[in-house]
Write a structure and sequence with these properties.
Belongs to the acyl-CoA dehydrogenase family. This is Acyl-CoA dehydrogenase. Helices cover about 55% and strands about 15% of the residues. The chain is an alpha+beta fold. The chain has a four-stranded antiparallel sheet, with no helix packed on it. The chain has a three-stranded mixed sheet with strand order 1-4-5. The chain has a two-stranded antiparallel sheet with strand order 8-9. The structure holds flavin-adenine dinucleotide. Flavin-adenine dinucleotide (FAD) binds next to β1, β3 and α15.
């Protein structure tokens, strides 16, 4: 499909619809849920009722062959509020893992359980990061051992910073089946609701995104049916055999990160970049209006070039980041190779722009910007995570640097 910057009618309708929800339902509640530091279940329910929270919504956005629907929707959702946006979007991490690694039967069985329904919405968690395995995913210590007698997998380990950890109906957990193979020896498993041995006793207190629940998850002899291995045992055995064959060949050593894994991450990054973009745009718009009305030295502060130029830079950076996000989303959907790490570029730029723009917005509001009376304080806190999760800015640069140089930069 050709790349086209004019949104079509459907995309414009989608944008207006999500924007309307963000404006009328999310924004008025944003400060309250940030203070409460709790998952806003009534808002999830509202979103589920109108079809904004659920698998159907994701399928509809994914089915857009331009790839732009998801970033467009995410930008509006997070324009409403970052914390509530993440409470609504967090489930999609687990769903993406099931979609990416599961069989069609697993998709049908587990995805509805991730979302629940409008009367009783549920959330799901994707648990990959560990205390000793953050950016360095290959050093994962959680283990999955197959018990042939009972056809069960037994999971042990600790997961860190899981969005929705412990409150999720469905947890998707990654673990190492063969640690000698590094990231190629890992697999993803569904832990069904109510499974014994999975616990998340400590909810983490965060700088921002406070309406989104984050917790460490402990796996203590968690026994799950063999069918909970995403993709199935035969596929895993084949993959492990291939990895063992290739292990230690010189070609393998230079391609440690694995092209397939990199492509999966690259595909999800523009959607995350769009979230950052929404927060940045909200802060910019607020600062622009404030600068037009705040009077000092007998004139609105926007009449000073220092303020007006700051706003000009903010808008320019946001628009530049959006172009990178849309380009990467289009490339991913149209199976263009990310030869220069374009997915990473989009997330890197949008995350850094969100941090810079929200900081400038606080500055433009002066003392008022530092108070909780104005939303830019919250946006400033919410934006920071975008240079950290889903791959830190340094890791994005690593991906881009390796892609453009062909050198295995460390
Ligand atoms: C609010 C929140 C929600 C999260 N949600 C989830 C979730 O749902 N599921 C999940 O699995 N994880 C989640 N995470 C974890 C997140 O993805 C990790 O925090 C992130 O990947 C970074 O890992 P780390 O914190 O261990 O940092 P580290 O990897 O320890 O990095 C520390 C610093 O070192 C730098 N660094 C590391 N290696 C290199 C290198 N090779 N070159 C240059 N610099 C390097 C990093 O960029 C960073 O600046 C979440 C985290 C937070 C805070």
């Amino acid at each position: 499909m050709e790349f086209w910057l004019d949104l079509n009618e459907e995309q414009q309708d989608l944008r207006a619809w999500v924007h309307g929800f963000a404006e009328t339902v999310i924004r008025p509640a944003a400060s309250e849920w940030d203070e409460r530091e709790e998952t806003p279940w009534p808002i999830l329910q509202e979103a589920a009722k109108i079809g904004l929270y659920g698998f159907e919504f994701l399928v509809n956005t994914w089915s857009d062959t331009s790839g732009l629907s998801l970033p467009v929707a995410n930008e509006e959702l997070f324009w409403g509020d970052g914390g509530i946006g993440m409470a609504i979007s967090g489930t999609s991490l687990a769903v993406a893992a099931i979609y990416g690694s599961g069989t069609p039967d697993q998709l049908v069985e587990w995805v509805p359980q991730c979302f629940g329904d409008a009367a009783d919405p549920k959330v799901a968690a994707f648990c990959s990061t560990e205390p000793e395995a953050g950016s360095d995913v290959a050093s994962m210590r959680s283990r999955a051992v197959y018990d042939e007698a009972s056809d069960e997998w037994v999971l042990n380990g600790q997961k860190a910073y899981a969005t929705n950890g412990g409150i999720a109906n469905v947890h998707v957990v990654t673990a190492s089946v063969d640690p000698s193979l590094g990231s190629r020896g890992q697999a993803a498993f569904v832990v069904p609701p109510g499974t014994k041995g999975l616990a998340a006793t400590r909810k983490l207190k965060k700088l921002g995104l406070r309406a989104s629940h984050t917790a460490d998850v402990f796996l203590d002899d968690v026994r799950i049916p063999g069918s909970c291995l995403l993709g199935g045992k035969e596929a895993l055995d084949r993959r492990l055999a291939r990895a063992r064959e290739k292990q230690n060949t010189p070609a393998d050593r230079t391609k440690r990160s694995g092209q397939a894994a990199m492509r999966t991450f690259e595909l999800s990054r523009p959607a995350v970049g769009a979230q950052a973009l929404g927060i940045a745009r909200a802060a910019y718009e607020y600062a622009l209006e404030y600068a037009k009305t705040r009077v000092q030295f007998g004139r609105p502060i926007i009449e000073n070039q220092a303020i007006a130029f700051a706003l000009a830079d903010m808008r320019t950076e946001i628009d530049a980041a959006r172009l990178l996000v849309w380009r990467a989303a289009w490339m991913g959907r149209n199976e263009r190779p990310f030869a220069a790490g374009e997915g990473s570029m989009s997330k890197l730029k949008a995350g850094e722009v969100a941090v810079a723009v929200t900081e400038k917005a606080v500055q433009i509001l002066g003392g008022a910007g530092y108070l909780r009376d104005h939303p830019v304080e919250r946006m400033y806190r919410d934006a920071k995570i975008y240079t950290i999760f889903e791959g830190t800015s340094e890791i994005q640069r690593l991906v881009i640097a390796r892609a453009i140089s062909g050198v295995h930069i460390r």
